[in-house]
Write a structure and sequence with these properties.
CATH superfamily of the largest domain: Vaccinia Virus protein VP39
Order of helices and strands: EHEHEHEEHEHHEEEHHHH
CATH class of the largest domain: Alpha Beta
Oligomer: single chain
Number of domains: 2
Largest sheet: 7 strands, mixed
Mean pLDDT: 92
Low-confidence stretches: none
Distance between the termini: 58 Å
Length: 251
Amino acid sequence: MEVRAKKFLGQHFLKDENIARQIAESLTGITPHVLEIGPGMGVLTKYLYNMPDIDFHAIEIDRESVSYLHQHYPSLHVIEGDFLALDPGTLFSEPFAVIGNFPYNISSQILFKVFDNRSRVPELVGMFQKEVAERVAAKPGSKTYGILSVLLSAYYDIEYLFTVPEHVFNPPPKVKSAVIRLRRNSITTLECDENLFVKVVKIGFNQRRKTLRNALRQLNMPLDNVPDRLLSLRAEQLSVDDFITLTKSLS
């Protein structure tokens, strides 16, 4: 039985066994609980399935893929559903790692969901469109540095592991892919209002051509206490610590 890749689900099935093994082996074992998102035909699943001492679940929205997985991995706990609509607390009572060859059309949404559940997800290893992977791993001053770069690096150490060519997928995507790893750092809470921090980061990058003095006017908050050196910069020039300082000054 072969599963037909569905364009509307953003499916590109990895067919290179060595790359699948590399992705699985990139998990560091920070937690024994592991969730694979979008396993498809299970090329990555087979390596996770055979790992000793892990509590392994998978979630898949495609009914055809779910049937395939039940047939080939009968003891695997497969949830038929949408990760973006899932309450992670219904799966694991303990922190869990997230792994997958993520559908490119929802990969950024998956990262935002992980960010929202950062207290539950200490590690992520994932395949993304190369452009998205570079954006997540970008540093201040880079043109690809953006909202996800700041929000995720506030709580995670981010590593760009390796680039993946187009021809190792069926069907091949039109772009290169890349695998990145996120591991929770020691920060549990920021030294500022975290909700305001998120809002400031989003406003800054949504108007990235403006200086922060102009971009932040829509907050309708006094800027008198904000260091002038920060207000004169654009969002892409600020580090995470700068954004924290900015948020503290605002509140």
